[in-house]
Amino acid sequence: MLVESFPAAQLRAWGLSHTGYAGRDQRAARRIILDGLTHRIGISHAQTGLLLDHPDALDAVLAAFGAIAASTDGPPAVAPPDGLISVMDGLMAV
What we know:
elongated
C-alpha cells in the first residue's frame, strides 16, 4: 500500500495550527504546534529542539501518524484515481 500523508491536514484534523509553520523564521509557530503535541505524544527535550529548528523533521513526525492511520484502517475498497490522503482522527500516547 502506498500512503500519502499531508502534515498540514494532520494538524488540522487535530485542531492545531496548520499554516505558516514551515518557514525558517517560523520557530514560534512550531513551538505552538509542539505545545499542542507534547502532552499527547512523548517528545524528549532533544527531539523538541530538533523539531523546532527543522520543519521537515516536524513534517516527518506528522506524516508517520498518517501512515499509522492508513495501516490501521486499511485501504478502501474503491479509491479515487488521484488517491487519498490519510490522517489520524485522534492522538494516541506513544
